[in-house]
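Reviewers asked in the last cycle whether our approach scales beyond single polypeptides. To address this, we selected a multi-component target totalling 828 residues and predicted its structure end to end. The input consisted of the following lines:
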Amino acid sequence: MANIDTKQYSPESPSMKSRMSWLWSEYSVIIAFVIIYIGASAMNPRFLDMNNQLNILMQVSIIGIIALGMTVVMLSGGIDLSVGSVLALAGVISVLALNASGSILIGIFTALLVGSFAGFLNGLMVAKGRIASFIATLGMMAAARSIALYIAEGGSVSGEVSGFTAIANSDFWIFDFPVLIFFVMAVLIYILMHKTRFGRYVYALGSNEKAAMLSAIRVDRIKIGVYTLIGTLVGVAAVIETSRLNSISSSSSGAQYELDAIAAVIIGGTRMTGGRGKIIGTIFGILILGILNNMMNLMNVSPHLQGFVKGLIIIIAVVFQKRE
Amino acid sequence: MTSHPFVAMNNIKKSFNGVPVLKNVTLEVEQGEIHALLGENGAGKSTLMNILGGVHQPDSGQIFINGEEVIVANPHFSQAHGISFIHQELNMVGDLRVYENMFLGSEIRNTIGFLNVEEMCRQTQEILAELGVSINPKEYVRNLATSYKQLIEISKALLHKSRLIIMDEPTTSLAEHEVNRLFVLMKNLKKSGVSIIYISHKLKEIQEVCDRYTVLRDGQLVKTDTMQNENLEVITKLMVGKAISQERFVHDHVYGDMALEVEGLTSAGLFKDIDFTVRRGQIVGFTGLAGDGRTELFESLFGYRKKYAGIVKVKGKTVKINHPRKALQAGLGYVPKDRKENAIIKDLSVIHNMSLSSMGNFERMGFIQDKKEQQQFHTYKEALNIKVHNPRITIDKLSGGNQQKVIIAKWLEAETDILIFDNPTQGIDVGAKQEIYQQILTLAKLGKAIIILSSEAPEVMRICHTIHVMYHGEITASFTGEEANEEEIMHYATGAKREGEKIG
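The resulting structure, written as structure tokens, was:
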């Protein structure tokens, strides 16, 4: 607020300055993306290779799908730490269902069901139990991982139905299926957030919960919907993850996915406390993370250092957002 | 003139978001005097004091302390110059003990740097004893009654050896004997050379303790004089002013059908046995002091609070309202107080704030029709005279009056017949106030049933057909708009008088 005031009163070229700052505040993540993209192309010619580009997209698609849901959760003013564990749990149970039934459809359906049910429970805890989302989903994170480990006896389970691997390993035109699924999900979530009342309510709730409630919005139901939605998206991600290698590990699959998803959302400019942010920002946020990972691989940076760079980027992103 | 006042504020100007709040205000406080700062809500008293306390910076004007010009850049500066501010809202940390609160930020330490608890407790006890209260210094503040918290705030100011204490309505939560004790203390302080700026609405109190007064109205200095020469009526007139017509707006007209009937509404600790009715076209006012339970009453009626018992009938039908959605379905709309916290969604655009409670009106096959929203907003923009250049900007960029109109538009769009306004003109400048009143009257003429909650008795007296006065969660008196007078209302609002029979 104060910032805007001073800008209005500053005599030197106010229109130019305010236009620049508007451009920056609306599109900072895209500008950052372009800078990083150009930098990456300059540093390593292999980066621009078509296969490499498609590879980046493939690599970010799973986290990307989860990050879409995370954007919605964070816009509502919450957070979901359980996504990685729920992905493992949904993967393990869906492989068991797949093997038992021999039907790919039942396998997919099971993953979606497990994901959305875990999300629904998170939503219940947050909305009806009035537990802080951080705590509720932290509990779910531990519990879901534990159940996955118990069911799979600490190891991996593998699919025994032929054709299941086709989901993640086929392509259409030049795009891999997971990338297409990510795109479709992104469009659907975009429409949901900007063209339906659910999206409007999520923004309202994240911005001012009491005012949203006093505007006759069923805040509890929206919250439950938000967490169920991310659960379902985690189910989708679980199907892709499982199908890619035809197996899922109860101990390591999905580990730290929540951090990457949250990082993408924050880099994308969504406010931690909710109410403000864009789906499109998250998409560019995930692409930035993907490019950085890719560049570090191409340049043979030790994988142990990649986390350091990621951490740095997140902090820089937040510092810049604070300034506007 | 060799002697100078302890504090002088000269020609202070300040505006927020382009709305002038203080226009050339001058205030002088002599050493060892109790100076009353008077004015209606929104007259600029708090802003002036916040400038003196270093919370806000003036746009122009000078401040002198002890004859030296100073720039009060932050609250620390004013504290260092012996100015203490006792706010209306208490600044206590509930999870700390009494002595810890007293010494917060200025803890006494022994030679090796550990806290000297005993010394702090001793000093705390000493000062509290001076005030005539006995509280264990090691008690947690959260366990204390509000009046004690207030006394601790005052003791804190004494502890810091303040030379000027600003008291913003310090007696609202004090019982009578505590008030008397406070006055004795204030007079003692005065004798020892401490100055006090005393902000209060209770004119009788002011006459009892204050030496001089300054009246502000709409950000302007109206008069400064010694207390002895004045009688209270004159001061009241100065505060209210004649520039703005205080004439009643309402001219009687025939009411329509019964819109809302409330019988025996009770919620433990908040309000009890509330009965009233509102007809279409009728404007019913509720007034009282802070803590009278009227906001809680209507938050319950609107379904925001769920724990209450009693019968609510809307248009003759008994309804059970346990969520604002149910209230909306029954035809109730609620324009809450504290607009920023309760009403506006600051990250949503003006248009989206308008449509928030009636999304169904703008949907086709589940998708929002932006164009329809815009057109509808345009209708309200014309009808309610909402001044906004680009309705896509976020609502927090609008002035208070225009924000309020958008909230009203929201409930009109939701087709509600019973509109509840809680403090509808809070933080709205005088011109826009008139407009809001006019809008409310127009709505009543259109057949809406209107309920207005306000802590300002003159406000409800101006626009309401019927006025209910609340005290400690009960309706203590009811008047028609014509017969009500401010003094009577104050008697019932302070619990000095109560009345059995009801009208309306």
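The longest helix of chain B spans residues 176-191. We regard this as preliminary and will revisit it once experimental data from Aim 1 are available.
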